[in-house]
Amino acid sequence: MGNIHTCGPNECIVISGGCFGSTGKNMVTGSWAWAWWLVTDVQRMSLEVMTLNPVCDNVETKQGVPLTVTGVAQVKIMKNPELLGIAAEQFLGKKEDEITDTILQTLEGHLRAILGTLTVEEVYKDRDQFANLVREIAAPDVGRMGIEILSFTIKDVYDNVEYLASLGKTQTAVVKRDAEIGVAQANRDAGIREAECEKSAMDIKYSTDTKIEDNSRGFKLQKANFDSEVNTAKAEAQLAYELQAAKIQQRIRNEEIQIQVVERRKQIEIEEQEITRKEKELISTVRLPAEAEAYKVQTVAEGMRTKTVEAARADGERIRLIGAAEAKAVEAVGRAEAESMRMKASAYKQYGDAAIMSLVLEALPQIAAEVAAPLAKTDEIVLIGGSDRTTDEINKLVGSLPPAIQALTGVDLTGALGRIPGATMVR
Questions:
Q1: Calpha distance 47→10 (Å, rounded)
Q2: What are the tens digits of pLDDT across the range 48-101?
Q3: Is residue 42 within 8 Å of residue 5, measured between CB atoms?
Q4: Which end of the chain, N or C, is less packed with Cβ atoms under 10 Å?
Q5: Distance CA 254, CA 248 (A)
Q6: How many C-beta neighbours within 10 Å does residue 416 have?
């Protein structure tokens, strides 16, 4: 029995022993492998990048100046199967610190050897070339251990004898001297150049002013000619535009008239169709119902007329019969009243004023009742003038009755009473 072992792309599994024999081994990267119990050995080896910081203290250069150089190197175990096997033979079972220490000593040795072949200026001024040289010389040695140098750079270069500082001071003094000389020469040349430029500028200015005036005069003359031509062209264009606008307006007006004519024709057609529709609608909604109603009314009227005529005939016959009977009755009553009147007239003629007086006296109560009728609704009568005049007022009221009776009946009551035998008139 055994186990399955897996690993990521940043490590390698090395399986040895068992069926692989005394010299065989199985190396797996980023995959899985089977290992038997008891008879196989399983070990892991990291393939991640390792950072090294090589330092060389007080290493003499080609000139004998001691320098201290520090750098940074990035290394890793190569994945090539052959080189991976070499790295496994040399580093399998070791810790990462032990592996980096071995590689670091190799790099520092090559760094010391190369420093002894270069001058301080070559090391200080061209660090990239120095680093490339170290990487090229050290790569074969570390490659034989299955290690690849990914990058190598120089971090710092300094010394304890102030050689670099002196070198910098000398260079600084030279640079300052050259700078001061350059400034003086530049100021001198600048003054000369400034005077020449100012003279040239004044010449150019005067020449330019002259040309500007000439050009201005020519421009104004040319502009006046152009303005004249432009105004003429504008006037012609304006007249042409107005003429063309009038023509276009006339065309538009003609088209509008045509459109109005067409619209009017269509409106007339629509109105005619509407009239036809209205006529049909009136025929269907008014005329035909009216004719039906008229026929109905006519038929009903004829029936009513016939009924009324017959009823009128019956009523006429009834009225004629009733009238004949009433006429006979009236004739009889008239004859009786006439006879009564004739007899009264004969009696009145025979008795004369006595008969008339009799009629008047019979009518007096009725006249008195009609005269007193308004006084029946009177609660109280007040006579103004004192109690000694009451008799006079009553006498005046009674004295006004004969003229009133004569006005109503035409009978002179005072005269008739005076003609009664034994009657005395009081004045």
A1: 5
A2: 888 889 888 888 888 888 888 888 988 888 888 888 888 888 888 788 888 889
A3: yes
A4: C
A5: 10
A6: 18
Tokens of 165: 């500082």
* Closest alpha carbon to 76 in 38, 103, 98: 103
pTM, entire model: 0.38
What's the half-sphere exposure (Cβ side, CA atoms, 13 Å) at 193?
Answer: 6
Please count the helices (runs of H) and the strands (runs of E) in the chain.
10, 9
User: Hey, what's the torsion of the CAs at 215, 221, 224, 225, to 10 degrees?
Assistant: -110
Listed in sequence order, the residues at least 6 apart from 158 whose beta carbon sits closer than 8 Å to its beta carbon are: 67, 68, 164
Which token pair is 135?
């990487």
Listing DSSP states for 149-207 in one string gives: EEEEEEEEEE-SS-HHHHHHHHHHHHHHHHHHHHHHHHHHHHHHHHHHHHHHHHHHHHH
Which amino acid would we find at residue 27?
A: M
Q: Which two tokens stand for residue 75?
A: 């290394």
Calculate the CA 425 to chain-centre distance: 120
Amino acid identity, position 93: G
Per the listing, tokens 């035409």 go with 410
Reference 42, options 18, 77, 21; nearest CA is 18
pLDDT at 253 over 60: yes
Residue pair 103/145 in contact by the 8 Å Cβ criterion: yes
Backbone angles phi, psi at 325, to 5 degrees: -70, -45
Give me the amino acid identity at 133: L
